[in-house]
Amino acid sequence: MRIAVTGSIATDHLMTFPGRFADQLVADQLHTVSLSFLVDNLDVRRGGVGANIAFGMGQLGTKPILVGAAGSDFDEYRGWLDRHGVDTDSVRISEVLHTARFVCTTDADHNQIGSFYTGAMSEARLIELKAVADRVGGLDLVLIGADDPEGMLRHTEECRSRSIPFAADFSQQIARMSGDDIRVLLDGATYLFSNEYEKGLIESKTGWSDEEILGRVGTRVTTLGAQGVRIERAGQEPIEVGCAEEERKADPTGVGDAFRAGFLSGLAWGVSLERAAQVGCMLATLVIETVGTQEYQLRRTNFMDRFTKAYGHEAAAEVQTHLV
Question: Which one of 89, 125, 247, 313 has the largest count of C-beta atoms within 10 Å of its C-beta?
């Protein structure tokens, strides 16, 4: 099963200031604020929802096709993804813009000052999925993840016009999108991904009820944080899957991306929706135990031992034959 993952490609530049921002602010001079902070360290991490999801699928051996836009500074990141089983040949490289970047400084009280540079991500709207499909011999599913909003709309319309099944996954972009755009992006989706808060926001912005949305998509997948995930289809009983037990909680960033990677890998293997969700929850557990969205390691024996403990021998037997 050939799955293309569209979405943002970015790097995070995270710095730590040992003092307190509040101590540097003068109340009656905030309208002319000009500050520079001497930071203790710099942590550069790979990120972007498209790249995070593709990385997880690559770890599971399902050879995803990453579709997005990056800058000429993408070479090292590309090498990392290539080594971890991701097809990066459909990433557009901008001639003038750098890869998207989040720069953030955190103080001793965990307050943050950050900036997000869109950069090359804005060129995702110039990518045509037909060229991707022609290169790989067709596409069975396209995940349309958070990216340049115009690019998300273009990819969705192209999937419809070319009868390519697609999964709608707005995540971070839902806050800035209008109800009209959200209706366009979800109508006819084979899968709709969101967390529980986003689920309510989708219904509020579109004006469609839960039942109306279920009538417009094939399968609705809602992540529930520590409670796991709920899968709904019109006219059927919902499927609920709990989380695997975590060994520690290091950093929740990227957990949702990891779930999607596991779920999509399960679809590629042809297992049931319940099994796919279990794989997603297990991969998400590995991410929450690690600082960074792509810093975890998937060791097959350890993964299967923990999967068996969480979901039983029958489930493990179905998944083990597919796990590379």
Answer: 125
